[in-house]
Design brief:
Elements: H1 12-26, H2 32-47, H3 54-69, E1 73-77, H4 79-96, E2 99-102, H5 109-121, E3 127-128, E4 135-137, E5 147-149, E6 158-162, H6 166-174, E7 178-182, H7 189-193, E8 196-198, H8 202-216, H9 221-229, H10 233-246
Parallel strand pairs: 1-2, 1-6, 2-3, 6-7, 7-8
Antiparallel strand pairs: 4-5
Helix pairs in contact: 1-2, 1-4, 3-8, 3-9, 3-10, 4-5, 4-8
The structure holds adenosine-5'-triphosphate.
Amino acid sequence: MIRKIPTTHPRANSLIIREKLVDGFRNGIVVPQGLIAHGRGEAFDYLLGEKTTKYAYEAQRAAASLLLLSNKSIISVNGNTAALCAKDLVTMSNVTKSRIEINLFHNSSTRASSIARILTKEDAFDVLGLNSKSKAIIRGISSNRKYVDKDGIMNSDTIFLALEDGDRTENLVRMGKTVISVDLNPLSRTAIASNVTIIDNIVRVVPNMIRISEQLVKKDKSYLLQLIKNFDNKENMHKSLLMIKKGV
Ligand code: ATP
């Protein structure tokens, strides 16, 4: 049960997110380390004014274009993202025609099944990452994140991920995958290694990505390609970092 937060509270949004994660923790979806990882993100979000900046929005437009142009895109889901925005992740997978794969740093088949149940309840018809017979291994990673689905991340061209560890991001990019990451910390290894880095909170990113994708899907392929060509990830991240430094 998620504790009710008065909407008049000045920090209501932030407190609601915390409550969802605590609820996810009680339900065995979120691990304690996930709560700590959220704390790191929350600190950056505070400095960003808990808003989607214009730079994050530009990154989301580039990310949506990449997903729409991909043939085999995957949305990687973990405990925190499932607890925070399962329904929106399923909608985003439908709008961008991406498959969903559960991928956990602190792996457990029980937790993966609980996350899959939540996604299925939100009408996901296809959740990868559960079948041990379909397991593939990414070389060079020591954590459990090395296990991926051979029909999912291993076979994908573009991967959308959040709250990811740097090791795997670096390896996925090395493998030639296009990686879109959502990370509030522009200094993390994931943020630095990704092809498109969205410096924003996952709870705002996914609804934005749905809206943007619904608009962009109506555009010509050349329009999307131009949007990607005009996007400079390094410059975009630098501008986000300056906003954090200056304060909003
Ligand atoms: P890296 O290995 O890439 O350097 P890290 O060790 O700093 O990353 P992790 O603890 O593996 O990071 O993952 C948490 C990351 O996710 C942090 O960088 C944090 O800023 C970010 N994060 C946490 N909560 C959110 C959220 N709700 N939305 C977006 N990013 C988030």
